[in-house]
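so my prof wants the structure for this chain in the tokens format not the other one, which i didnt know existed until like an hour ago. anyway here's the sequence
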Amino acid sequence: MITKKSNTQKRNFKGVDFELLACGQKSMITKMNYKIGDNVPFHCHPNEQAGYVISGKIRLQFAESDQILTAGDSYVIPENIEHRVEVIEVGEVIDVFTPPRKDYK
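here's what i got, hopefully its the right format
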């Protein structure tokens, strides 16, 4: 499956704008468009989440980890682990979820 940029689906989840770039049966890829004030409270989901920071600066907290991430940094959050994001600088983050998040479709 190919998704052209002109066909990406713009979405908003709990006040955060993102683009649903592609979604298959077993995985989903999104681009989060973080703005100042887009702090994501502690939450968890039954999906493993892997991410890559394209630009900006975020604080990611989960399990025993509390890190400031900037462009070029990446992470993996196991399923059902409480985590939160604090936006420090405007930026973009690619997130991959397996399986796809039903609440993002």
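also thought this was worth mentioning. The chain has a mean pLDDT of 95.
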